[in-house]
């Protein structure tokens, strides 16, 4: 039995761009549930249709796409946000990620890059245009502070720690499975278990935790 198609919602204030992206994704097998032109309608519609992935522009007029991203990720836990923006400004990227975006793609990306990014975002990966992942991880490292020595650290198994280290290096679940010679599902189980133990929400937060604790460095 085949898996259901990834469901998508496209948010952009330019009708031609919005409709073009929606059409391209539909032609490539995605289920485009809705489109929206501003932050308020994006949140309202997303609450109703609950897509797997929201493709979010940042320039939405009165209310920023960053605000819409924060609202959607907080109110609809099963929906992930992939920013698709004309801006590659570092401040825009970091604001979007801190608001809960799972990834950030610039609009100069090719159709194949967009398709891959949406699929990977739906699968739970953190996806960035080349060069931006390093920016995000570098910012998290800069922000890192010495953990409170009095705090009780969550107990992770050796395998969970190993998977966490590879997540911090930006590897996908399939790449991790191949490297550790375990199944893709087993990797996902370890990731979900680690998220629960650390009380985190997604792989971006997981990578930040790993970097703050030095787990992105080789043992």
TrEMBL record:
<dbReference type="Pfam" id="PF00072">
    <property type="entry name" value="Response_reg"/>
</dbReference>
<dbReference type="InterPro" id="IPR039420">
    <property type="entry name" value="WalR-like"/>
</dbReference>
<feature type="modified residue" description="4-aspartylphosphate">
    <location>
        <position position="57"/>
    </location>
</feature>
<keyword id="KW-0597">Phosphoprotein</keyword>
<feature type="domain" description="Response regulatory">
    <location>
        <begin position="7"/>
        <end position="122"/>
    </location>
</feature>
<dbReference type="GO" id="GO:0006355">
    <property type="term" value="P:regulation of DNA-templated transcription"/>
</dbReference>
<dbReference type="Pfam" id="PF00196">
    <property type="entry name" value="GerE"/>
</dbReference>
<feature type="domain" description="HTH luxR-type">
    <location>
        <begin position="149"/>
        <end position="214"/>
    </location>
</feature>
<protein>
    <submittedName>
        <fullName>LuxR family two component transcriptional regulator</fullName>
    </submittedName>
</protein>
<dbReference type="InterPro" id="IPR000792">
    <property type="entry name" value="Tscrpt_reg_LuxR_C"/>
</dbReference>
<dbReference type="InterPro" id="IPR001789">
    <property type="entry name" value="Sig_transdc_resp-reg_receiver"/>
</dbReference>
<dbReference type="InterPro" id="IPR058245">
    <property type="entry name" value="NreC/VraR/RcsB-like_REC"/>
</dbReference>
<dbReference type="InterPro" id="IPR011006">
    <property type="entry name" value="CheY-like_superfamily"/>
</dbReference>
<dbReference type="GO" id="GO:0003677">
    <property type="term" value="F:DNA binding"/>
</dbReference>
<keyword id="KW-0238">DNA-binding</keyword>
<dbReference type="GO" id="GO:0000160">
    <property type="term" value="P:phosphorelay signal transduction system"/>
</dbReference>
